[in-house]
Design goal:
Elements lengths: L22 E3 L9 E4 L2 E4 L2 E4 L5 E6 L5 E8 L13 H8 L11 H9 L2 E8 L2 E9 L3 H14 L6 H20 L4 H11 L14 H6 L2 H11 L5 E7 L3 H11 L23 E7 L5 E8 L7 H12 L5 H9 L3 E9 L5 E9 L5 H17 L4 H17 L4 H14 L6 H10 L2 H11 L5 E8 L44 E3 L3 E4 L5 E6 L5 E8 L11 H8 L9 H10 L3 E6 L4 E8 L3 H13 L5 H20 L1 H14 L13 H6 L2 H11 L5 E7 L3 H12 L23 E5 L5 E10 L7 H13 L4 H9 L3 E10 L4 E10 L3 H15 L6 H12 L9 H13 L5 H11 L3 H11 L6 E6 L1 H9 L6 E3 L9
Parallel strand pairs: 1-15, 5-9, 10-14, 17-21, 22-26, 22-27
Antiparallel strand pairs: 2-3, 4-5, 6-8, 6-9, 7-8, 11-13, 11-14, 12-13, 16-17, 18-20, 18-21, 19-20, 23-25, 23-26, 24-25
Helix pairs in contact: 1-4, 2-27, 3-8, 9-12, 9-15, 10-11, 11-15, 16-22, 24-27, 24-30, 25-26, 27-29
Length: 941
């Protein structure tokens, strides 16, 4: 997968065009939806066709938003790799973005950004590889051109230089997501033991450094000839298009591509584990962890669905058995999860549990085995099964809010069930599962003699011998190129955009309740779901001790005056609802999503949690242990550590915003019922809150529910009104956090930034898109695509109500830490050296504006955007004014923003890595003074 930038939003995670189409406020059209809800029945409307060359195409109209999603599945993954080439399918995925015969390397992403792409990426799974993006619907032909050229003409362009670059990138991805991720190598060991050497699933998707580096250009060509052919691919289109027009374009762009030979069948003996396997893996972690794994029924085979429900019952959230037993009652685990991972050659059922400090992997294993034995001998009760079933259904339907979610579901069913329209049957199968079915499959498949147990323990990280990175080739040779399809001159011309459909941005209606609570309603007909968020205009900025806002928010789920913590979890699960509470720098939130018919009860549950917290002493004690363990987990994670240290560097250790979200050990231990109650009374008040609701709900219904649940809410005590004290940033320009033996350096490069609502906010957004916000930005292009130093480095400006910050972050190879920073500084200063060229300005501006509809394609996204805007005091018209403000940004405005806000001399570097290896590189940058801090942000002598 190609990493995409974090939301670089200044205030809203929204995006931007050169000359905007007609914009109008209003709710999306309800006509021609892909997801069709008829009573209790849910299905996806589609048409499936097959071209003469074997390409399958699935068309699903959905005219709610002027968007069209392209989702191309290649029916090949690690299951199709040959011995000695583990990770090759994933490496090939990266190469698919390296250019085609008619689209030079790097240009496709730039063209897509200019067109307003969203949800653009690719990913490799064991059984398939996918390539997807969403475009404005007037760019239907552009999408056809790019996708067809990737499939038919990518091999024409790939050479030794492109291969070497992407080998570097993929190896950086492995370092970041496996070796520098806590327990990454432990999870990898589970698969190494579950599946024997030579099995396609043995090495996981990522493969090994040796195999990635050993891949040759001949292997790339062979893989393309065999698997990347129309007869081994399926293209799904979802969105605002006319099927007749789409079929004409399919005939033009895809029909001429030649079919390949029949794809070789994958013949692998079924995996049979007949005796328990046990191994121990040490890693740079603080807490022991247990992984258990079984090879179970293949996808959609008998037992697969039953084990999916079993995983929900065992560890599918706070209402699950293992959570209640290990985390809540015994308090021996920090977290526990279970999943059934459906695969064609044998699925993987896994359970993982992380110990609390002072507890062992042996304790966890014994406790897990007790719950497995219970479920294998006694069926779950009807209520427990109903909770699991409802939660799974809601999760499935939530995935169908977005175009890419619909497309992925159609592709998934098409490949594994042989029917894109399998959703009703899948739901019916879920409804038909009985408690006895669950017991039977757990007893027969999750046996001790059929499993692998891996202990992940603190200790030395033992990696395979280092594989050198050879020098990159200096140029391509003519003999390196070959073609699978005949060239045609018209493919060299980029298609022109069609007429843009007027865009209807979500229009919000604001109502003020008598008690001061603001209600913001945004209608969004479609999937029968509703999302709500209660937003408080207080967060860490109102802390009297470090971490208090976060502690208070977490306690809202740990019991009310009428519900215990387990009852809250059970009630949410019974509704299929997702209740989340959290605190940020300047706000706190309680969020919930549920099916429309269950939303009234779900909102009542949220209201009870927010308005009636018990702050029981025993729950506070339990939560203190959980938060102390979370601090240990935070220290294990390099990027999480960098974020904490960045706060201290930007604001000062004693500033309310200079601490990590969790605070520190002393603050956790000092937290009491009185301090939690005081924070809650000062900040959780109707005159400090807004309720934002979006979904299949009318304004009248939303208002009635708001009055019922919050109308009699009154603030208690004295409201918090204090402003933030001035920041006391460090004078250091480089801060090192030592992580001995780290395979990668986690970087955060930070500075202060303006507050939200400044007049040049739109110009700043566009400037940053060009500098570091986009995948095609200057920073990422140089550090990833040209140098191969990283899996991805991005930047963002986050403008708050009382403060603003700039952050550039990513992981880089240890040996190039200094070189990567030097390049980053060069690109930052390059923004202020001269105005953006016209083409680059157009790309950055269009990328922000034209992708705007994709930022409002789910209820949760709509709610989050309006909630954030309200908490920043920007008003609901901030959303509808975005197109006009962004479209007005010209080269002069972007250059002025760069001169004002982009300066490498103002940046402070936080580098979390092996100090012995990176300190000399950082010294050589000449950016004194340099500090050394601990993972808690405290200055070390």
């Amino acid at each position: 997968m190609r990493i995409r930038p974090l939301a670089l939003a200044t205030s809203l995670a929204l995006a931007s065009l050169i000359v905007p189409p007609a914009f109008a406020a209003g709710s999306p059209s309800a006509s021609a939806r892909a997801v069709i809800s008829e009573g209790d029945s849910i299905r996806i409307g589609f048409e499936k066709i097959r071209l003469a060359n074997g390409l399958e195409v699935i068309l699903a109209e959905d005219h709610r938003l002027p968007l069209v999603t392209f989702d191309l599945w290649i029916h090949a993954g690690p299951r199709n790799e040959t011995a000695g080439l583990t990770g090759f399918a994933h490496l090939f995925e990266h190469l698919m973005f390296a250019g085609t015969r008619h689209i030079p390397r790097g240009q496709a992403d730039r063209i897509l950004d200019t067109a307003g792409v969203s949800d653009s990426n690719g990913s490799t799974d064991f059984d398939r590889t996918n390539y997807f993006f969403t475009l404005p619907s007037n760019q239907l032909e552009l999408g056809m051109w790019i996708k067809s050229d990737m499939l038919g003409y990518m091999i024409d362009q790939v050479d030794g230089t492109a291969l070497a670059n992407q080998q570097d990138v993929v190896r950086n991805e492995r370092r970041q997501n496996v070796e520098n991720r806590p327990y990454g190598i432990v999870e990898e060991a589970l698969y190494n033991e579950l599946y024997p050497a030579g099995h396609p699933y043995h090495a996981m998707v990522m493969g090994t450094h040796a195999d990635i580096q050993n891949a040759k250009l001949a292997d790339v060509k062979r893989f393309a000839r065999t698997f990347y052919r129309p007869n081994n691919a399926t293209l799904v289109l979802v969105g605002d298009f006319k099927p007749a027009e789409a079929k004409k374009l399919l005939d033009k762009y895809f029909a001429p591509l030649k079919a390949g030979e029949a794809v070789p069948a994958v013949v692998v003996p079924p995996v049979r584990i007949t005796a328990e396997k046990r191994i121990t893996v040490t890693d740079h972690v603080e807490l022991p962890k247990v992984y258990m794994g079984w090879v179970t029924s293949p996808v959609f085979k008998p037992g697969d669905a039953e084990l999916g429900v079993a995983s929900q019952i065992l560890a599918g959230g706070k209402s699950s058995r293992l959570y209640k037993s290990l985390v809540y009652d015994r308090q021996i685990a920090q977290s526990v999860n279970a999943s059934q991972y459906p695969l064609s050659l044998g699925s993987t059922f896994s359970i993982e549990a992380t110990a609390r400090p002072g507890h062992s992997a042996e304790e966890l294993e014994k406790a897990i085995d007790e719950e497995l034995t219970k479920l294998a001998t006694t069926p779950p009760d009807a209520d427990e099964l109903a909770r699991a079933r409802t939660t799974i259904k809601t999760q499935m339907l939530s995935g169908l809010e977005k175009g890419i979610g619909i497309a992925e579901q159609l592709n998934y069913y098409n490949q594994h069930a042989g029917d894109p329209g399998y959703l009703p049957q899948d739901l019916a199968k879920l409804d038909a599962i009985t408690p006895a079915d669950i017991q039977r499959e757990v007893a027969s498949q999750l046996r001790r003699d059929a499993r692998v147990v891996v202990y992940g323990l603190p200790g030395e990280q033992k990696l395979a011998p280092e594989v050198p990175t050879p020098p990159a080739p200096t140029g391509a040779k003519a003999a390196e190129r070959e073609s699978l399809n005949a060239d045609v001159a018209w493919r060299k011309s980029q298609p022109k955009a069609g007429a843009a459909r007027p865009l209807s941005l979500p229009a919000a209606t604001t109502v003020k309740l008598a008690n001061g609570l603001t209600l913001i309603h945004v209608p969004n007909p479609g999937v029968p779901l509703v999302s709500a968020e209660l937003k408080l205009a207080s967060g860490a900025n109102a802390n009297t001790t470090p971490g208090l806002a976060s502690f208070t928010a977490a306690m809202l789920q740990e019991g009310t005056k009428t519900r215990s913590a387990p009852q809250i979890a059970d009630d949410a699960a019974a509704l299929g609802a997702t209740l989340a509470t959290s605190a940020a720098a300047e706000s706190s939130s309680a969020q919930i999503t549920a099916l429309k018919d269950k939303f009234p009860q779900a909102l009542a549950l949220l209201a009870d949690a927010v308005r009636n917290p018990a702050f029981a002493d025993e729950e506070i004690t339990r939560s203190k242990k959980a938060r102390s363990a979370a601090l240990a987990q935070q220290r294990e994670n390099a990027q999480a550590t960098a974020a904490v240290v960045a706060r201290a560097a930007l604001f000062g250790e004693d500033h309310p915003l200079g601490q990590g979200e969790l605070g520190d050990e002393a603050a956790i231990e000092a937290t009491s019922k009185a301090s939690l109650l005081a924070y809650w009374q000062a900040n959780y008040r109707p005159d400090n809150a807004a309720l934002i609701v979006s979904g299949s709900l009318s304004l009248a219904e939303a208002k009635a529910l708001a009055e019922r649940n919050f109308g009699d809410w009154k603030g208690e005590g004295t409201a918090h009104t204090a402003k933030l004290p001035p920041a006391k940033p460090t004078a250091a320009r480089i801060v090192i956090v030592d992580k001995p033996g780290a395979p990668q350096t986690a970087l955060r490069v930070v500075r202060s930034a303006p507050k939200a609502g400044v007049s040049d906010e739109a110009a700043l957004e566009v400037m940053n898109a060009a500098m570091g916000g986009l995948f095609t930005s200057r920073i990422n292009t140089v550090l990833r695509e040209e140098k191969g130093y990283t899996y991805g480095v991005y930047s963002r400006y986050q403008l708050g109500r009382e403060f603003g910050t700039f952050t550039s972050l990513g992981g880089v190879r240890t040996d190039v830490t200094g070189a990567a920073l030097k390049d980053l500084f060069h690109e930052v200063d390059g923004m202020r050296a001269k105005p953006l060229p016209a083409a680059e300005l157009a790309k950055a501006r269009n990328a922000e504006l034209l992708s705007l509809p994709g930022k409002f394609d789910t209820n949760a996204a709509i709610v989050s955007s309006f909630a954030q805007g309200w908490s920043l005091g920007l008003g609901t018209d901030y959303v509808t004014s975005l197109p006009k403000r962004l479209a007005a940004v010209d080269a002069a405005a972007a250059f002025k923003a760069a001169k004002k806000y982009a300066d490498s001399n103002a940046l402070t570097v936080i580098a979390v890595g092996d100090r012995a290896k990176i300190a000399p590189q950082l010294d050589a940058l000449g950016r004194a003074p340099i500090e050394v801090r601990g993972p808690d942000g405290k200055l070390l002598k």
